Amino acid sequence: MAHQRTSSTVDSVKEPHSVSLKVLRLSRPSLSVQHPIPLPTPSPSPTNSPSSFPAPAASLAYPSAKNDAFILSPLLTLPPAFGSAYVGETFSCTLCANNEVLPGSSPSKVVSNVRIEAEMKIPSSGIPLPLQLGPETASEEDEEEPKAREKEGVDLEPGPSLQKVVNFDLKEEGSHVLAVTVTYSETTPMSGRIRTFRKLYQFVCKGCMVVRTKTGPLPSSGEKGRTWALEAQLENCGEETITLDMVILETKEGFRSQGINWEILSEGESMEKPVLMPGDVQQVCFLVEETINKDGNRPEPTAEGRLIFGILSLAWRGTMGNRGFLSTGALGARLK
Predict the structure, then answer these.
(1) Which terminal residue of the chain has fewer beta carbons within 10 Å of its beta carbon, N or C?
(2) Which helix (H) or strand (E) holds 317?
């Protein structure tokens, strides 16, 4: 998990808690990398000279009867660390509350009514956002039942754990703090009490895609409305190779757009989506046309003298299928 900040305990009891908390980020695995040894070229040598070449199969990532010289193997490797979090992706992690009471311990303790709550602190807001924990069951028909179920605790026997999954869409860069609160009831033969502890996990969200736009007018007749060309440069600033799934200009009322990018195909051609390695830039362009209604009215500019076309939305996939989505701010052109 990300860097764990100093945890604070709500109750003043210094005794160790009977419940522990583990937080693990849910990330997709990657293909294992192997470095196969090339096969030795046959050369005339004395028959009694020993061969100094190691077996090529010794360099493979897994046992195989055939010598596969490809650098990627069919094996999957789990992420060794927290990794990077990018704007546009969904941050997912599992929260696990474990009952640490040993069977037969003295005095005997019973842990019950275990509840987990989580919230996310984002850079643009001073108020943490409450997070909904999953997984949700199929029998939940309305929104009231899941909230009531979250408030209900779970009784844990010694050894078992309570696991929840939290998902959060990352929409801005900067430091994020995941706050997890665990509340449970601890009962002994002589007394009972409610105990609570809270842990904070901090991570930094970075930008994966940088979008630079430029708008220029095109020659057009006054009867059909004005026309502009909107160009955009999409730069992959992440550490992973991505594939662009979608780049569209969502126009507001009074405008319509047409993309002149890779989706334009001749008959018999198949569409190849752009692949961006780290640092690569993809150029896209859209034709934006002003529409005039039946009354002859045109879209009104803003107080600053700008016409707002709409927003640019793009979606991408990583090497293992992890998806990302990003929308820009309002795009337009300034009237001269």
Answers:
(1) C
(2) strand 306-317
Handedness of CA 41, 47, 52, 58 (dihedral sign): positive
For 149, the enclosing helix (H) or strand (E) is helix 144-151
Among candidate residues 120, 116, 119, the one with its CA nearest the CA of residue 183: 116
Task: Using the structure block, give the residue that is written with the tokens 């707002």.
Answer: 308
Contact indicator for 296, 267 with CB cutoff of 8 Å: no
DSSP string of 69-111, one letter each residue: --SEEEEEE--SS---EETTSEEEEEEEEEE-PPTT-SS--EE
| Global pTM exceeds 0.85 | no
pLDDT tens digit sequence for 153-208: 888 888 888 999 999 999 999 999 999 999 999 988 888 899 999 999 999 999 99
Q: What is the pLDDT of residue 304?
A: 86
Contact 215, 164 (CB under 8 A): no
Cβ burial, residue 74 (10 Å; 0-12/13-18/19+)? exposed
Here the tokens at position 27 are: 């990330």
323: Cα separation from own chain's centroid: 7
